[in-house]
Amino acid sequence: MIVEVEAFASALGRAGRASRNTVAGYRRDLIDFRRFLLERGWAVDGGERVNPDRVTDDHVRSYLAEMLKRATRSTVQRRLFALKAFFRYRETAIGVPSPARALRSPRLERRLPIVLGEDEVGRLIEVAARPGQERGPATLRDRAIVETLYSAGLRVSELTAMNWRNIDEELGMVTIEMGKGGKGRIVPIGEPALAALLEWRRAMPIAWSHDGPVITNLRGGRLSVRAVQKIVERRLVESGVATAVSPHGLRHCFATHLLNHGADLRSIQEMLGHSSLATTQRYTHVSVKHLKEVYRRAHPRA
């Protein structure tokens, strides 16, 4: 099964229908399914060789039921997607019917995104410089990170992948060359965020280049997603904001605050790069909650 999993992952990557992270995730999920089968001796042709031809829908159901005991529904859903994609690939390639075709995904819990208030975002942006780093490069970079995530609603991976050529200073626009699902888009960026980025660029310890990364460490290397997450975590502590929020949470803030101030869902969908309006619509629940709170506080007969 290992050989077929690797062939499937390579085919998926070449087709360009999935991001590198998705391909890696599907590979891990399929290897985990193989482990599950081996532990139970199911669909095994001796030794440690799992024969995908012998996998049944009951095997897949048992695996998903086991996963539901120790993983979130969204994780189980992703694993079923991986199995469906793999067995569909085999069905197309060699004609063996997919045992996962008729299986349905578990219903996901509806969780509202965590959103900071506008004043809390302001405090996160305006964190005072740490001792010994007064307006130094690291402080300017960290501020630019938070400003840009919130101003343009970027995914953290989009921010770390961004190069200086992607920023149009004159128009105040940012080009995302490769977003989720391999889709690009162009989004506005506010003047404060643009000013923060240019201030960071002037302070960069290593000379910047047109085709070079925007967000770097102090040695000039592109900053990792995890490093950005740590920067946001540290600024939360330093700002005194009690609500824990990730870099992706600033994207939620971007969408919710736009909606609260009258932006339409279609425009927000375009800026976020959502392929489906249904994904964007969850922000309406947050906005309605905000309106109800305002109504309760302000109306004399609420």
Describe the structure.
The protein is globular and about 65 Å long. With 302 residues, it is mainly alpha-helical. It has two domains: 2-94, Tyrosine recombinase, N-terminal domain (DNA polymerase, domain 1, Orthogonal Bundle); 118-298, hpI Integrase, Chain A (Orthogonal Bundle), CATH 1.10.443.10. It has helices at 2-15, 20-40, 57-68, 73-94, 118-125, 137-152, 156-161, 191-203, 225-239, 247-260, 265-272, 277-280, 282-298; strands at residues 167-168, 173-176, 185-188.
Please name the CATH topology of the largest domain. Answer: hpI Integrase, Chain A
Q: What is the number of domains?
A: 2
CATH class label of the largest domain: Mainly Alpha
For the record, give the distance between the C-alpha atoms at the N and C termini, rounded to a whole number.
63 Å
Multimerization status: single chain
Structural class by SSE content: mainly alpha
Mean pLDDT: 88
Q: Give the name of the CATH architecture of the largest domain.
A: Orthogonal Bundle
Measured by DSSP, the beta-strand proportion falls in under 5%
Radius of gyration: 23 Å
| Poorly predicted regions | none
Fraction of residues in H or I helices: 55-70%
| Total DSSP E strands | 3
Identify the overall geometry: globular
Continuous helix count:
13
Biggest sheet features = 3 strands, antiparallel
Order of helices and strands: HHHHHHHEEEHHHHHH
Main-sheet strand order equals 1-2-3
CATH superfamily of the largest domain: Intergrase catalytic core
